[in-house]
Structures are given as structure tokens and as C-alpha cells.
């Protein structure tokens, strides 16, 4: 009973003075704690310390209780001030922590992203002006070389690997029998690789195709067209002398004639089937239809790195190619002879051959129109200010010669000339369209003399 009484008294004192060490005294001056410790085993002491949280102790501490500080149950005044200072410091720390916890962070102004070192490098170089040399080939005072002079100079400098190149090409010739067999089985052979394949195909033609019907197509020729190819097949292979209203009608006639005569075996040797004049979808579609026939066999070569992009899946199924890598390391001498160069001057014989080949595939009226323009240009060659024949004047001359019946017909024919690069049109200062043949007078004179002889 005595122990329970001590506990009740201790609890009441702790409730009245929270946060402090409580000492219980008896009426005789003996503390309650000393009397309680007398009942405990030796070595164990009782010290009552409040474990109530600071906020709860502050709420429980009433103002009227603090007036009892003078009683012998309250601590000294200095202890109260220290406790108050500690409470205020803890309260300030709690307010700061709560403010940091619940306060929404203010938005900081966005700063521009600093450019990286790579961006700074390109920015600095883009702002600076790049100067290049003006020493170009056009400013050379030396005249251009002709084809004969260039060929003679190149022949005087043989290749250092001539023997190895010849041995490599002899290895390719071992496939001639295999190619011939695959062509007869319904496949078509396509050659690719670095170097000109024209000599290799020419040796195949002379060794395997001399006794059969074959046709050679130079795809690198600047004036080659689908119409000229179809005319060669119609005239030289089928021996048909009639005319056709359109290439579609001519194509249908060729397909029908070859299907009706399966015994007629035709071999097409196409150099540079990816040439600039043969890359159009219409031309490749027509060649693919010819290659799909059982009695037409195609042996072709490509040189452009993106040549396979010319064919889609439908065209590839028509050609039915077998691809052969035939690197020859031979120069593209003939393939590049028709290209404009700053060092080489086109010979008159080459331009004359080009004119003759193209005009041979045109109608008589078309040849007459071109002849009329050539004659007028030769008549005006002594005029230094001659810039061409105007379209209206040319139309009147063609109409008087009964070559055309309307300006639409003439423009259609001029479009074909322009596609073959036979004429060039330009507008003068008065916005009038002028026509000009881009051939020197000497070559044009030789062409007219050859036409008169025929």
C-alpha cells in the first residue's frame, strides 16, 4: 500500500510540473524518493524524469501553475529561464523545419542553355568567310586537246599492272560458256564491277554470237533512245519497213512478231543499261518486256553505283538477272568520250557520227526540219551577232516548205530534237525564243554534204 501511495503522489507531481526532475519530500523532511529507495534492493535508485513531449508539456503547463514557483516543490528561477530559452529555440527550429517542409519552392528564372563546345566551333567557322582559289581549268591558256592527241598521250604511258589486268580479264573469259548456257535456259546476265566491261562483252560477242542474230546497244551514247532501239529491232531483225504511230504500237508489233516465231533467237548486248538516256521508267519497262520473251536473251553491264535502284520488284522479275562481278580495272575510254570535258575538245568526226546516227531514226519530215535549221545557221555564220533563229520565223519557213501544218506539230518535233540534244533553245533580251544547233560550222557543213550524197 505504501508503494502505491508513492506512485500516486509521484504521478500527481509530474502532471503539475512537466519536464522537471521531481523530488518528493515527507512531512519530516525526508524525501519520498529516499523513502521509496529504502524498499528497493541495494544498488537500485529511483529518479523520476518526465518523458512527455515538449509540445504536450507546453500545453499542459497552465499559467496559474507557474505562480507556484515560490513553493518548495518548484525549481529555482534560473532553471525556469534556461528551460524557457530552450523551449523558444526548439520552437523556432520547429517553425523553420515546418516552413521548409510545406513551403512551395519559388520558380527560378530560366537561364538560356549555354552552347556546347561543338556548337561554338561550328558557329565560329560558319561566321567566317571561306576563301577558295580562283585557279580553275577554265583559266588555263593552253588549248583543249582533241581525242586523237589524248589517246596518243595515254598510249605512251602504259599501266604498271598491265600483266595483272590481262590475267584478270582472261579469268573472266572462262565464264563465256557458262553465260551462253544460262542465256539459253531463260536467264539474263548482268555484269557489274570496277572498270569498263565493254571490251569483255565485245570479246563475248565475237567469240559466241557471230553465227546468231544479235544486236548491240550502246547505252552510254548521249542520243540513244527507246525509239532508236525499237527501230533497229524492227528494221534489222524483223526486216519490217513500215512506220508506226507511237512507240507503244511498235512495241506491240515486236512482241507479237517474236512470239509468233519462236525459232528466231535474238541476243541483245547492252553496254551500260543504266546509261543516262536509258534510266527512264518507260525505257526500262520496254526492255524488261523484251527480256521476258523466251527467244530474247539479254547480256548487259552496269557502271553506276546506284544502278540497281532503276528496277523495282516487277522489273526485276521481267529481267530475271544473274549477277556476275567482273572487275576489269580498264579505263572508261569510250564511255566517257561523249561527255563534255574542260581538257578535251570533242572532235568533229564524233559529233558528225552522233548527228547521223540520231537523224537516221527520225521521219523524213523531221530530217527536213533539222536540215532547214542547219542551212539557215550556215547562212548566218558570218554574222557575229547571230544568236539563233526565232521560233516564229522558223515556223513560217517550215510551213512554206510543207514540213508542218501547225505550230503544235513543230513544237512536238523540237521537243524530240531537244531530247536528243540536237538543238538548244534560249530566250533573248526581247523575250523571243531562239533556236540554235550546238555544232561548229565545219561539222554542220560535212553533215549536209553527207546528206546530199545519200
From TrEMBL:
Gene Ontology biological process terms from the UniProt entry: DNA replication
Family assignment from sequence similarity: Belongs to the ORC2 family.
Domain Origin recognition complex subunit 2 winged-helix: 383-442
Origin organism lineage: Eukaryota, Metazoa, Chordata, Craniata, Vertebrata
Protein name (record): Origin recognition complex subunit 2
Species of origin: Scleropages formosus
Key words, A-Z: DNA replication, Nucleus
Biased composition regions of type Acidic residues, renumbered to the chain: 79-91
The keyword Cytoplasm is annotated on this UniProt entry: no
Subunit-structure text: Component of the origin recognition complex (ORC).
Location(s), subcellular: Nucleus
Residue numbers spanned by region Disordered: 59-95
UniProt keyword annotation of Kinase present: no
A GO term from the CC aspect: nuclear origin of replication recognition complex
Function field: Component of the origin recognition complex (ORC) that binds origins of replication. DNA-binding is ATP-dependent. ORC is required to assemble the pre-replication complex necessary to initiate DNA replication.
Amino acid at each position: 500500500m505504501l508503494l502505491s501511495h508513492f506512485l500516486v503522489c509521484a504521478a500527481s507531481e509530474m502532471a503539475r510540473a512537466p519536464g522537471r526532475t521531481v523530488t518528493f519530500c515527507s512531512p519530516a523532511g525526508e524525501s519520498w524518493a529516499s523513502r521509496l529507495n529504502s524498499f528497493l534492493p541495494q544498488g537500485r535508485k529511483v529518479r523520476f524524469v518526465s518523458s512527455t513531449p515538449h509540445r504536450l508539456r507546453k500545453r499542459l503547463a497552465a499559467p496559474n501553475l507557474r505562480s507556484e514557483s515560490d513553493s518548495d516543490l518548484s525549481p529555482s528561477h534560473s532553471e525556469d529561464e534556461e528551460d524557457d530559452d530552450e523551449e523558444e529555440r526548439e520552437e523556432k527550429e520547429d517553425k523553420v523545419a515546418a516552413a521548409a517542409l510545406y513551403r512551395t519552392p519559388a520558380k527560378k528564372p530560366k537561364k538560356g542553355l549555354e552552347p556546347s563546345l561543338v556548337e561554338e566551333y561550328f558557329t565560329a567557322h560558319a561566321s567566317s568567310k571561306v576563301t577558295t582559289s580562283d585557279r580553275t581549268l577554265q583559266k588555263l591558256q593552253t588549248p583543249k586537246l582533241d581525242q586523237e592527241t589524248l589517246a596518243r598521250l595515254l598510249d605512251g604511258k602504259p599501266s604498271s599492272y598491265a600483266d595483272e589486268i590481262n590475267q584478270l580479264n582472261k579469268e573472266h573469259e572462262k565464264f563465256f560458256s557458262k553465260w551462253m548456257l544460262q542465256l539459253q535456259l531463260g536467264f539474263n546476265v548482268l555484269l557489274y564491277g570496277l572498270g569498263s566491261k565493254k571490251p569483255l562483252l565485245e570479246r563475248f560477242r565475237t567469240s559466241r554470237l557471230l553465227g546468231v542474230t544479235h544486236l548491240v546497244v550502246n547505252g552510254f551514247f548521249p542520243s540513244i533512245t527507246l525509239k532508236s532501239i525499237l527501230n533497229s529491232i524492227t528494221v534489222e531483225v524483223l526486216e519490217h519497213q513500215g512506220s508506226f504511230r507511237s512507240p507503244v504500237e511498235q512495241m506491240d508489233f515486236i512482241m507479237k512478231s517474236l512470239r509468233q516465231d519462236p525459232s528466231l533467237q535474238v541476243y541483245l548486248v547492252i553496254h551500260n543499261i543504266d546509261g543516262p538516256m536509258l534510266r527512264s521508267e518507260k525505257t526500262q519497262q520496254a526492255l524488261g518486256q523484251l527480256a521476258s520473251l523466251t527467244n530474247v536473251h539479254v547480256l548487259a553491264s552496269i557502271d553506276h553505283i546506284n544502278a540497281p535502284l532503276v528496277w523495282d520488284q516487277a522489273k526485276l522479275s521481267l529481267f530475271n538477272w544473274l549477277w556476275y562481278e567482273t572487275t576489269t580495272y580498264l579505263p572508261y575510254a569510250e564511255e566517257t568520250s561523249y561527255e563534255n570535258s574542260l581538257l578535251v575538245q570533242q572532235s568533229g568526226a564524233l559529233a558528225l557520227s552522233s548527228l547521223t546516227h540520231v537523224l537516221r531514226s527520225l521521219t523524213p519530215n523531221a530530217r527536213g526540219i533539222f536540215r532547214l535549221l542547219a542551212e539557215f545557221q550556215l547562212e548566218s555564220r558570218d554574222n557575229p551577232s547571230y544568236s539563233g533563229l526565232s521560233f516564229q520565223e522558223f515556223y513560217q519557213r517550215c510551213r512554206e516548205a510543207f514540213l508542218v501544218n501547225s505550230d503544235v506539230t513543230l513544237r512536238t518535233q523540237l521537243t524530240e530534237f531537244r531530247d536528243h540534244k540536237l538543238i538548244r533553245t534560249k530566250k533573248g533580251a526581247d523575250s523571243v525564243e531562239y533556236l540554235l544547233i550546238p555544232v561548229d560550222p565545219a561539222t554542220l557543213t560535212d553533215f549536209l554534204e553527207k546528206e546530199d550524197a545519200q
